[in-house]
Amino acid sequence: MQDCLFCKIIAGELPSTKIYEDDYVYAFEDIDKQAPVHVVVVPKNHYKNITEVKDSSQVGKIFDAINKIVEQLDVKNGFRVVCNTGEDGGQTVEHLHFHLMAGRKFGWPAG
Ligand code: 5GP
Ligand code: ZN
């Protein structure tokens, strides 16, 4: 997608701090970290959000990547995965992504 921020990051047209990459997924440090570890995990295919994913194997690729990143970063005490979706869900970038956060204790449902 021409005007998509994350498509540009994936294509290397905008800089990012890469954490992980495979054929399907690109993951990089969030620019505005909400935890000591805050990685944005993004499918290379452009989907606006979860509702556009009709092929669930795509989500499997993301979860495989998350498990590899978790191993790589060695976040033994646990982590949080968040997928903000749509306006009420707090999504600000309209390219499906999962926040992987760790390194502090999280509250629930907020914080
Ligand atoms: P959302 O709010 O859509 O769930 O998440 C978008 C995330 O992308 C935010 O946490 C925001 O900090 C991050 N973000 C926005 N622009 C950039 C950027 O240019 N580079 C990086 N690394 N992260 C970004
Ligand atoms: Zn995109």
From TrEMBL:
Q: Where is the active site?
A: 97
- Matching InterPro entries, A to Z? Histidine_triad_CS, Histidine_triad_HIT, HIT-like, HIT-like_sf
The record's section on SUPFAM superfamilies has: HIT-like
GO molecular function of the protein, one example? catalytic activity
Family matches, as Pfam families: HIT (PF01230)
Q: Which PROSITE patterns match?
A: HIT_1 (PS00892), HIT_2 (PS51084)
**Name by which UniProt lists this protein:** Histidine triad nucleotide-binding protein
- Species for this entry: Criibacterium bergeronii
Traced from the root, the source organism's taxonomic lineage reads:
Bacteria, Bacillati, Bacillota, Clostridia, Peptostreptococcales
